[in-house]
Amino acid sequence: MELTGRTLVPGRAAGAAVVLAEPLSFWGGLDPATGRVIDARHPQRGTALGGRVLVMPTGRGSSSSPSVLAEAVRAGTAPAAIVLTEPDPLVALGAIVARELYGTAPPVVVLEPDAHARIPDGAGVEVEAVGGRAAVRVERR
Amino acid sequence: MLAGERGPAARTAMRILVETARAMGADRFVEISRAHVDGCLYHGRAGLDFAERLLAEGARVSVPTTLNVGLLDLLHPELVRADPETRRAARRLMEAYVAMGCRPTWTCAPYQLPDARPGLGEQVAWAESNAIVFANSVLGARTERYGDFLDICAAVAGRAPYVGLHTDEGRRARVAFRLEGVPERLLASDVCYPVLGHLVGREAGSRVPAIVGLPPGTAEDRLKALGAAAASSGSVAMFHAVGVTPEAPTLEAATGGAAVPEVAVTPERLRRARDELTTAGGSELAAVSVGTPHASVGELERLAELLDGVRIAPGVGFYVNTSRATLAEAERRGVAEALARAGVRIVTDTCTYLAPVIGEVRGPVMTDSAKWAWYAPGNLGIEVVFGSLEECVRSAALGRVVRDERLWS
Predict the structure, then answer these.
(1) pLDDT category, B282, cuts 50, 70, 90?
(2) CA dihedral defined by B144, B164, B211, B122, rounded to 10 degrees?
(3) B200: in domain
(4) Which residues pair with B265 in a beta bridge?
(5) Distance separating alpha carbons of residues B350 and B293, to the nearest angstrom
(6) In b/e form, how buried is each residue of B279-306, taking b as 16+ CB within 10 angstroms?
(7) What domain count does chain B have?
(8) Residues 6+ apart with CB under 8 A from B21
């Protein structure tokens, strides 16, 4: 199945989907040393995000989130790609700066909310975000 | 600037601004008159790599720029329990931003500095969620939600993407909260405002809310607590308080005349919101932390009044966070001395929910800040009890959590 969205940060990546039901602020929510969710209030605390395609509604808008995402990229614990349903400039910014500093970053794309709901947790996902249009291919299981 | 006529740092800053502007859906930039930067708080190597790269490229801010808190208390270095390596990196980061021409204000409440307050309609680029919501809501200045990296890029380039809260359209209320049956005595208490903000943030998400029913002339410190809470539980970057804040003489003015969904704020919902801010049951109290966002002089005076004649129980740490500028004023007024006499440790330049000040504790930490209560359990791995400043002081004196339910019944 192929879903179409909008590119916030271009790139290509693939990995197993990790679907978060609630938004996650990277700052206070992601431990860049381990790549795991540490927000005590998040229902999926403890979930590993490193190397996976992170699917979530949006970041929670903490102004310190870009640093944490860039630090996770540096430490090699960042998600392989980030798929949102609402554009979040702070998530995009973390990736843009990580690429500026370290030459690599997860692509960030935005899908329509209904498309988002069609990605099952654990499914293989390929993100191809080139130009304005992004393709998100979900493996049939 | 992208061509490099203002040097390599301005080119890097502009490149990041252009890419982020695209992600924000902006098609042009607006000139800004001030910036407030929070990239000076150490979160790890990446933030330092970025600041030192810009500095090496010769970055200088092109507008007056204030700095948010760092990881260290430079005035009271013994208070922060960081390892030497982290301490060195955190200090290098703070110094890099000063070297780029930013003012070493080290506060999350730059709006408390008389010469750093933007005016109504002024276009600025501010970072730090509580400062953003205060600038937009209380001062009527215009800033989007800037954060690490973009804040300094905007300060260097002197411009920001013209989108969202920079525009008239983006500032209109999209949801209204109407106070219904909230008793006068609750509205007359400081503790009402962080609780209301917490509830508003939970329900509003990232929408601009209008709040109907706040008393005219609601004090700045209360609006600060409300906004900080709403920016923590939600991503509220601006609110209108009808009859209170400058862009909301009426609900119609706040919404631009559009019909918006309404949420009723009842005493019962406020009580539930208050309870959400506490993670611990009543027991031995380990510490109290107040002053998040940084306490104003008025708040320090109020704390000193409440502590007059009170002895803090042995073993209970009592911390208040404020800015170095506010501390200097409190020293002039004799308030700082009164607080120190009562056993309060004054923390400047940083904040106790970010920096390892409190250390490992047995038992809950009490706070009057919804923002602190929201973030401290995750950041510090502690239990928290939310209460009024009066409850915090009474509990500190007794060494155990005491709460006054009368206000909420």
Answers:
(1) low
(2) 60
(3) yes
(4) B179
(5) 10
(6) bbeeeebbbbbbbbbbbbbebbbbbbeb
(7) 3
(8) B27, B29, B161, B163
Amino acid (1-letter code) at residue B248: A
Per-residue model confidence as pLDDT tens digits over A53-88: 999 998 876 778 899 999 999 999 999 999 999 888
On whether any CB of chain A is under 8 Å from the CB of B24, the answer is yes
Would you call B49 and A101 a contact, using CB atoms and an 8 Å cutoff?
yes
Do A41 and B379 count as a contact with CB atoms less than 8 A apart? Answer: no
**How many domains does one find in chain A?**
1
The interface predicted TM-score of the complex, written ipTM, equals 0.91
**Which of A122, A90, A72 minimizes the C-alpha distance to A9?**
A90
Asked if B41 reaches chain A (Cβ–Cβ under 8 Å), the answer is yes
End residue of a domain, out of B115, B150, B166: B166
SS3 label, residue A3 = strand
Domain final residue pick, B166, B200, B230: B166
In chain A, what residues touch B150 (CB-CB under 8 Å)? 66, 89, 93
Q: B162: domain range?
A: 8-166
Structural domain contains residue B63: yes
Please name the residue ranges forming H helices in A1-141. Answer: 65-75, 89-102, 113-116
B188-215 pLDDT, tens digit each? 999 999 999 999 999 998 899 999 999 9
> How many C-alpha atoms does B275 have within 13 Å on its Cβ side?
10
Within a domain: B261: yes
Residues 6+ apart with CB under 8 A from B299: B221, B290, B291
